[in-house]
TrEMBL record:
Protein's name according to its UniProt entry: Beta-glucuronidase
Highest classification ranks of the organism: Bacteria, Bacillati, Chloroflexota, Ktedonobacteria, Thermogemmatisporales
Protein family (similarity comment): Belongs to the glycosyl hydrolase 2 family.
GO molecular function: beta-glucuronidase activity; carbohydrate binding
Cited NCBIfam families: PRK10150.1
Domain spans labelled Glycosyl hydrolases family 2 sugar binding: 14-182
Amino acid sequence: MLYPIMTDTREVFDLNGIWQFRLDPGQGLAERWYERPLRESVPMPVPASFNELGAAAADRDHVGRVWYERELLIPRRLLERRLVLRFGAVAHAAQVYLNGQPLVAHRGGFTPFEAEINALAQPGKNRLTVLVDNTLDYSTLPVAHYREEQLPDGSRLVTDIPNFDFFNYAGIHRPVRLYTTPATYIRDIVLTSALDGADGLVSYRVVVDGVGREAVAVRLRLLDAEGRTVASGQGTEGQLRIKDVQPWEPGQPYLYTCLVELWDGDGSGEPLDSYEEPFGVRTVAVEDGQFLLNGKPFYFKGCGKHEDFPIHGRGLDEAVCVKDLNLLRWLGANSFRTSHYPYAEELMRLADRLGLVVIDEVPAVGLHLNLGSGPGSARRQTWRELTTAAQHEQALRELIARDKNHACVVMWSVANEPATEEEGARAYFEPLLRLARQLDPQCRPLTITLQMWATPASDTVADLLDVIALNRYYGWYVHGGRLEAARALLQAELREWMKRLPGKPILLSEYGADALAGMHDEPPTMFSEEYQAALLQTYHEVLDACPAVIGEHVWNFADFQTEQGITRVQGNRKGIFTRDRRPKLAAHTLRARWRAIPDFGYKLQPSSRE
Ligand code: GCB
């Protein structure tokens, strides 16, 4: 799916700003609130999470539907064009109405969706209404425990407790835009690249749609960063050679632009449609136990993150995006994971530009009914109780469709911490992994991050993955406060993985400890800044000695909001930065380490071998 941009043939209108908003206590649909202007509404910014903008706990904790509405003024001349309304992301389900008529519905809170509005739009004033539902359950991604109960005083309590460790922010989280295209238009561009000596080979496929699509000619040019044409071609499919290519990689994120134009069959006049897709030329492969980027062994240094900030929650804030990526570079990091859901397109485009490598994750988190937060202590059968398979497949399709051309994306993470040690996991994941391999034109490696109960002895899916990704909390949830025990357990487990799957690379995709900024202790104790730093250092000694380890992602980049609970102090404090992005001691520890570790060839240095 193409990102909306202005070109010679396309216009983009921003519909962000203050909308009207109303919480729905339950009767909105039955009373057809979409048929007339929203009553009793309050102002609500878009994009933003609605949860923390009021002062009431009831707003923050609302479970169910909310309504957004705004006026949409459409100049008459625009209606002669193909007019598309596009939502960057609405969490978690949306039903959109235009002038009271249903326009488009979408399930899944982290990927874009769009619809042509010409049939329902009128010149002048239009009413745009969006019904948003934040309910999560055992059929959705992420997974939550939806519950209705009667309290002793007769009142009804509805809770939807996340089966994951971040606050269930909701609302219109990413930009809403209206854009135009000509009647015959470029629907999609698919790019893959290879290196051939000093040259780059770029394969392309252009999908043309709309009236008369068979009659148009496709022309394509590859431009370098200065805008000079370095290769050109025609037709909907082909391969182009870039002489003396500048590959994309961290440290030198060189981007080319693929300019696609549609022309009238005889090639006369002006282009009918045009679009510019930025791309990088680079290769990714897993071979001989190494993660190869442009044929060179890459070492991942970085963090798992969240889209999370005070006040606007998970709503896009491009200032925060820039700050975060700059702080990652300050740390000497070269990568991050979009834990635990696809991040905004705007951030992905920045990662391409700034040269940060991304592990791109679908919102498949909470697929384990026996880990920590599951209610009751009886052993449950995760893969019998969850009905997420269809949603999981859709999420995978939408993520790959959206992010397939990004140079920064080097691996897909198909789930975070599912119950891979339980019966049914392999049958659940095998088709999804197969599908991901079919869908990705670049055939990127696949991983799933494994939780602590998925051990070399109990896990049932690791052999299907290209990279084993481990989330490990020795010294925190297991043997908290005991760093020597943590060291011994991590060493032993890594050895067991190397025995079970020799030659399979291992990424430590999460490790860390909570630290309350400003809390100090010597010798270090849990929750102090010193303990967090010491835990990371202990892990690093083990990781450096293990040849199979191809990278380290600390949990987490910054403190973040969670559901309230007895193990969370206004959120999860495993950030190496505070929630407002100030460094803790651990950030300095990591900076000293990561600036000394090269992006390529680290484990080939003799000192890092066991
Ligand atoms: C994990 C999860 C992550 C949590 C983290 C923690 O394994 O993947 O979402 O936030 O542990 O801090 O408990």
